[in-house]
Amino acid sequence: MREIDEAFTGKRLDLALAETFSEFSRSKLKKWLESNLVSVNEKIVNKPSFKVTFPAKLELIIPDESLTEDLAERLDLKIIKSSKEYIIISKEAGMVVHPGAGNKSGTLLNALLYEYPELKKLPRAGIVHRLDKDTSGIMVVARNESGMRSLSEQISNRTIKRNYQAFTVGKIERSGKIEAPIGRHPKNRQKQAIIDSGREAISHFKVIESFGSYTHLEVSLETGRTHQIRVHMNYLGFPLIGDPLYGRRRRFAKNTHQKLREVIESFPRQALHAAELSFIDPATSKEVRFQSELPSDLVELRENLLNQA
Predict the structure, then answer these.
(1) What percent of the chain has pLDDT over 90?
(2) Binning pLDDT at 50, 70 and 90, where does residue 29 land?
C-alpha cells in the first residue's frame, strides 16, 4: 500500500497508479486495474478515469504471473555485488536501462535476464530506478520480491541516497540547493522543464573543483525526477558539458581555448556519473554504501579542463 503524491490530486487513477507503482509497465497496471486488483482507500476501483484526491492510499494485488516478457541477452555487465536481495551494477554510458521504442534489445534489462533468469518473475526484472542512456554509474536492482518491496519503499520515502559527479559549463562560486518543480516540456516531449505544474524536485550541489570557467560538482538528490540534474543545472545557467538536449545553447564558456573547444565538441554525452549509492540492506536492516569510480572518459575530460584552466 502506498500514498499518492499530492501533485496527483484530481488526476486520473491510471496516471496516479503509473507514477506510484512506476516499477510496473502501464499495460500491466491497466490490466490489473480492470481486473479489480486495485483499491483506493481500501475500496476496489476498476475505472482508469476515476479521479483521486490527496491524501489517498493505493493498494495493488499482484497476480502470480511472469512480469517480464523481454528477451534475455548476453551483454557486458559490470556487477559490483550480488546478494540474495539485490544486485549492484555499474552501468556504462550508452546502455539503455529499459527496452522501448527503438531499443528492443541491448538494454540493461535484457542483460539482467540473461545473468539472472529468475528476474523474469519481478516487474521490470527488478529495476527500481533508472539512469539516462548516456549517464554512467551505479544502480541497485532488486533480486526477489522482498528486496523489490523494500527498495521501492525506500525510493518512495526518499531514504535511498544518490550522489553524482557532474562537470558544468560556467564557474560556480559556491555550493547550494535547487528546489524547482519539473514536468514535461510543453513543446518538446523529449525534454523536461521547470514548470509550476511540475512535480517537486530538489537537488543539492557542492563544488569539488573549478577549472576557470568550468566546474566539477557533487550533486545529491532528494527526489528522482526524469533528467533532474540536467534540467536543474541548465535552469541555473550551468548546463552539463556535452549535454545534447539541454546544453546546446551554451556549449562553451567565454574565452575557452580552441583545443578545449575541440575536446568539448567531441565529448559524446552529458558529463554526469552516478558515483555513490546508499540504502538500508533489506536483509540486515543496516545501511550499505557502494561507489563507482569516474569512468575513463570523464577522467580524461577532467584532465583536459585542468590543463586548460
Answers:
(1) 64
(2) confident
Could you say which of 14, 132, 134, 243 is catalytic?
132
Distance of CA 272 to the CA centre of its chain: 12
**Across the strands, what pairs with 40?**
43, 58
Pairwise CA distance, residues 97 & 82, whole Å: 18
Lowest-confidence pick of 4-13, 194-203, 279-288, 289-298 = 4-13
Helix axes 26-34, 13-20, angle to 10 degrees: 130
Please report which helix (H) or strand (E) contains residue 26, including its range.
helix 26-34
Determine the residue type at 300. E
Q: Are 4 and 53 in contact (CB under 8 A)?
A: no
CA separation for the pair 164, 277 (Å, rounded): 9
**Catalytic site residue 134?**
no
Instruction: Name the least confident of 43-57, 60-74, 103-117, 190-204.
Output: 60-74
Residues contacting residue 204 through CB under 8 Å, at least 6 positions apart: 175, 176, 177, 178, 219, 220, 221, 222
Pairing of strands 136-142, 272-280: parallel
Residue of 256, 217, 258 whose CA lies nearest to 236 = 217
Strand, helix or coil for residue 183: strand
Number of C-beta neighbours around residue 49 at 10 A:
8
